[in-house]
Amino acid sequence: MKINHSEIKWHVLFIILVLLLIYPILFSLSTSFKTMSEAFSSPSLIPSAPTLDAYERVFTTIHFAQILSNTFIIATVVTLFKLITGLFAAYAFVFFRFKGKTILYFLLISTIFIPFTVTMIPNYITLSKIGLVDSIFGVALPQLADATGIFLLRQYMKGIPLSLMEVAALEKTSHLTRLRSIVVPLIRPAILSIGIIFFINSWNEYVWPAIIIKSEVNYTLSLALQMFVSSEGGTDVPVTMAVATLTMLLPLGLYSICQKFIIGTFAQSGIKG
């Protein structure tokens, strides 16, 4: 059997990259089971005396159930509205004919490249005027539509045979019925994968919640993590890693289950014109 040395080199490189990527996850998990002294003194990924003290302190120090609920509500609301607005907008760009459609579409897509810092202050001022500062709905409101989702859903919808839509038009079915009965079932894998991406991004978001949320009762998990980090030293490392571990469990689980849909969505979005 002939050994391909070139392939071996690429496999070794790939393994090294994978280890570099998963090391922070393993470090977080390992440190969450260590004592404070061991967390600072031992670089080993295997705790010498595993303990659940850090997790006990998480549940006794902060309102973890409330914070988890806040994060889940925000991520769910943002995901659902992004998908709904994305479906309607993508459907219109694919199946409607109106003047200036192409220009409007490219203007919409161009918003992807606008930095968050440009919209941050106007959004904050608007939310303060309507009384949604320090509210989980204030975190969600500016994120209820997403140009990236519209782009991906449009790419998938363009692969639907026009004959199906023409038959539906001959039967005088409404656009809402066509969207619900024809389009959504055909692009369900894309909807699922894009929804998971939206959910994970919202779940992990830190900057915007940090600007809007003031009281601990409205904190998200990313803000709760910051509670145990001190810029002047004294960081409770095991508890911080315990919060980090709990924070990443759901996103990792969702991605591991649905990774083939996510990868397929981005692969096919680049193929279809």
Q: Could you explain how this protein is built, in words?
A:
This protein has 273 residues and is mainly alpha-helical. It has one domain (58-271): MetI-like (MetI-like fold, Orthogonal Bundle). Helices cover 73% and strands 0% of the residues. The protein is built from 14 helices and no strands. The two termini are 43 Å apart. The mean pLDDT is 85.
Q: How are the SSEs ordered, and which strands pair?
A:
Layout: H1 5-31, H2 36-41, H3 53-61, H4 64-95, H5 101-110, H6 116-129, H7 136-140, H8 147-157, H9 162-170, H10 175-186, H11 188-204, H12 207-212, H13 221-227, H14 237-271
Helix pairs in contact: 1-14, 3-14, 4-8, 4-11, 8-11, 8-14, 11-14, 13-14
Q: Which spans have pLDDT < 50 for at least 5 consecutive residues? A: none
What is the overall number of helices? Answer: 14
List SSEs in N-to-C order.
HHHHHHHHHHHHHH
Please name the CATH architecture: Orthogonal Bundle
Strand count: 0
Oligomer: single chain
Mean pLDDT: 85
Please describe the biggest sheet, giving its number of strands, its sense, and whether it closes into a barrel: none
Which class in CATH terms?
Answer: Mainly Alpha
What's a concise summary of this model?
The chain has 273 residues and is mainly alpha-helical.
List keywords for this structure.
mainly alpha, 273 residues
